[in-house]
Structure formats: structure tokens, C-alpha cells
Amino acid sequence: MSLEGFPSHLYDGEIIVSRDGGVVTITINNPSKMNTMSRGVNTGLLQALEMCADDTTIMVVVLTGAGDRAFCAGGSLDGGLASAGFRDAGGEDRPPPTTQGAIRNLRSMMLSSQLLRDSHFVTIAAVNGACAGAGLSWACACDLRIAAENALFRSAFIGAGLSGDFGGTWTLPRIVGPAKARELCLLNEKVPADEACRIGLASKVIPARGSAFKEQVHKIAKTLAASAPLALKRVKANLIDADGNSFAEHLDVEAERHAKCGFHPDAAEAGLAFMQKRAGEFVGVGQQKPWVASRL
Q: How many angstroms separate the CA atoms of 209 and 67, rounded?
């Protein structure tokens, strides 16, 4: 199934997917509840990201929230869902919920953060309002966080009596530093857009909101998607691998990828396009003959 036919109805319409060339936009569509997490949101986002991961022609994925009030305000607190939403429902005809069952369910849903961070495409969190709890974790799993003027970031977990999920306590220290991450998580203070940009939590702030903001983010995504495909994907792969490599190991990885990019015709085209001050006309890997692609 292509992304154009994404089955939004299977997820209560709470995840909407659109595509423009190499750019896919995934919208959390629960604005009346500040785009908080639900089973539809979690399962729908995971399905959409898995479909994107299967398509090597996708260059950039933008994650955002519907409306102009919230990106994702985390887990819904209705009925204790934020703490209990991953428990199996008990009842007369069902076994009682267990801690291990909740762990299993939650970990499977947290794969969405892993896909945002580790997939071959560049990910952008278009933070169009409140970004809290697991919503902040999703944003931190993205490669870039672009904030609207009304964006507001908050850890929020400690206020909900929870310790944190979806990877936020792993990504946040790597983005803002260990000391600042402890401050944000423990003091649980709200961070407006300009302050988020100052501390490195937001990549940049666009002085707009709503549709005007999202149009600007889309332009950034399209510019990224116009890059030489192999180079863009391997720059991201280098950055991912840097977390686990020693310096010497990373030099080995860089040398291999850089040399292989140099053998691809897109490298010559990129240089020519730069000199001629025009957009590059790239072919990517998929259109290469098998014996050529095998060297890349």
C-alpha cells in the first residue's frame, strides 16, 4: 500500500498522511484534546512511520499536530490514560492486567521514537504549539525541531506522576546537555519558543503560527529533499552511528561512506549544479544499474 492510500480510518482519523514528492507530512489529528496520545494516534503513527521506512524514495518526514494550539501534549490524562493506557483491559472474560503486559505494550509503541530517530529519512518536528510529555519525546527523537512562535515545551512527566517514556530521557541530554536536561525534567518548567532555541532544544523559531508556520516548514523540508539522496541519507547515518562508535571506528565509517558517495554520479552533479548556481538533477540509488548500485 502506498502512503497516498494510508488507511486513516483504521485509526479513527487521528493520523493523517500526505506526500509531496520526497516529503511526507504526518499530522496528529486530535486537536480538541491538544493532539494528545490515544491508541489511534500511537498505532497510526507507528504504521505510517513503518510505511515510510519501507520506501527509500522518501527523503524527509515532517511530524506535526493539527490546528495551531498543540504539537502533542503527551498522553491523555482522561481516566488515568497516561499511566494506564498501555495496560490490557481486564474483565470477566479477560485475564487481569499485568505489569509485564503493560511493559510489552508500551515498548512496542515506543518503536515510533526509534523510527523517527534511526530511519533513513530526515525527520522534522514542526512544533506548532504545546509540546509536552511523550510529545516532547517524539520531538526530541526527530533530527530537527522547528518551533512556531507560540510553541511551548515542557517535560511534564513528573507532574503526572510518571518517570518518562518514548526516549525523552535519552535524547534530551544529548540535545541540551546533561545538566540542562535534568533541570527541564526535574523542575518541569515551561520553555517558550525563543528560550528553546537559545538552549538548542529548538533548531529555529519561525515567527508565524498555524498554516503560515506549516508552509514555511514545508519549504525547509522541500529544500532538504532536493539534496543528493545518497549524501543526505548517509549524513544522517553518520550522525546516528556517532553515538556508539569510537573516534577511530567512526573515521572508518566516514571514509567508506564518503568514498562511495564520491563514486556516485550525483556527487559530480552536485558540484556542477553548485558552480552553475542551479538546482541539482539527481538520480539517487534506485535508478542505478545493479552492478553500479552494489558499489554504493
A: 9
β-strand 15-20 against 23-28: which pairing, if any? antiparallel
Q: And the C-alpha cell for 264? A: 556516485
**What residues contact residue 46 under an 8 Å CB cut-off, 6+ apart?**
109, 111, 112, 115
Give residue for cell 503560515: 212
Distance of CA 192 to the CA centre of its chain: 20
Query: What's the predicted TM-score (pTM) here?
Result: 0.92
Q: How many CB atoms lie within 10 A of CB 32?
A: 10
Q: Please, which contacts does 231-235 make with residues 24 or more away whose CB atoms are closer than 8 Å? A: 231/261, 231/266, 231/267, 231/270, 232/59, 232/122, 233/59, 233/120, 233/121, 234/260, 234/261
C-alpha 137/C-alpha 201 separation (Å) is 12
Least Cα distance to 210 among 148, 152, 153 occurs for 148
Query: Which helix (H) or strand (E) covers residue 12, if one does?
Result: none
What is the model's pLDDT at position 283? Answer: 85
**Helices (DSSP H) in the chain: which residue ranges?**
39-53, 81-84, 99-109, 111-118, 134-141, 168-176, 178-187, 193-198, 210-225, 229-241, 247-263, 265-275, 290-293
**pLDDT tens digit sequence for 81-111:** 555 556 666 566 778 888 898 899 999 999 9
CA 25/CA 27 separation, integer angstroms: 6
Phi, psi of 249 (to 5 degrees): -60, -40
